[in-house]
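Subject: sequence -> C-alpha cells, single chain

Hey, anyone have a minute? Need the predicted structure for the following. Not urgent.
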Amino acid sequence: MDLTRNSEPTGPQWGPQRLALWIQCRNSMVLILTAAVCMGLMAACSLPKNPDRAALAGCLWFVSPGPRSGTLDLNSDELNSLQALGMRLVVLNGPIIGQSLEPVADDPAVKLFKEGDRRHLAFFVDTCAAADWWTHPNPAGEIARARERIHRLHDRYGHHPSFHGFYVPYEVYVMWDAQREHIHTLYREVSALCKQVAPMKPVLISPFFILDQQGVLGDFRWATPDEYHSFWSEILRDSSIDIVALQDRGEHLSYYTDDQCAPFFEAMKTACESNGKRLWANVESGELEVASPEDYVARFGLKTHVNDPRTQSSWRGVPPDKLMAKLVSLRRYTTTAITWGYREFVRPSLGSSQAVLYNEYKSRLIPSR
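Reply:
Had a minute. Here:
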C-alpha cells in the first residue's frame, strides 16, 4: 500500500464498502506510523525516567553565526552542555539553517547535522515565516515561500538521521474572522508540504495561550478555554501536524501560576487526543520577573508589551525549584517537555551567573547515582 499517494483508488472493482474500508485502513496506518516515529524519537533521546514529572527532552535554539566565518553558535561545546542536562532534541529556529549560499561557500549546517548524527541527536528544522505573515491578504505567497524552503531544507539535509522533523513557527493563540481562515489555511498547507517531501518526519508546532484577561499588556482579545479548545480542534483536525508543544507561559510573566495555566493545557490535551495528535509542553526557562499585574503597570506602564526595551533588565532564567515544579505540574498532561529560554538565559557559556544556574538545573534534572 502506497501511503504517499494523493488520490484514492478508483475503478469498477472498488465498490463503496471496499473503498471505505481502504480509507479506514490507510488512515489507521498513518496514525500508527506517526506514533511509531514519535516513540522512536523518545527511544533515541534516552531520557532519564521519572514518573513524577515530564522529562526535559530538548530546547529551542535560534541559530546564529559563530565567532568565525563558516561556523554556528550551536557548536560542540554547546551540544555537550545541553546533552549533559539530558536533552537530546533541538528545534533549530531561524533562517540561517538552509540559507542561500554562494557557489563556493561551505555550509556550516552540514557540520552540525553530521555532528548530530554522531551524537544521535534529533533536530526539528524551522520552516520559517515571512515578516508580518498574519497581515497578508492572501496566504498564497507565504505558502509558496514555505514550499521553496521546505524542499531546500530536505534536499540539503534530509538524508541525515539527525534531521528528525519540521517545525512550523506560526506561534499563535487564537485568531478570529479572516485571520482565523488565514492561519487555518497556512497550518493545513504548510504541514502538508512537509509531509509531501518527508511523509515519515513529524511536524511540530508551539502555540501559546493568554492569561492577561484584564488587558494589562495590550488590547488582545481574550479567549476562554472552551474557545481555545474549539479553535485548536479545528486546526488540528484539518492539518498534518503531529506534535503540539504548548508554551506554558504565553506572556512570559513570573507571577502566573501553574493552576492558572491548567485550563488551557486541559483544553489542548483534549483537542490533541480527539484528533490523534501528541501533546508536549514548551516549559519556559526564561521569564520576566514581576510580582503582579499592578507591579507591571507601575514599572513599565499600562499596555506595554513584554518585549518592550523597558522590560529587558528584568528578564532572568527561571529558578531551578520553579522549573522542577512546572515539570511536575505538567506531568498530568504529557511526559515530554522542551524549553524556550535555555539558550537565552541558562547555558553556561553566557557567564558565571548562568553557569551557576545551569549547574543547579543539572543537579535536579540529572540526580547523582
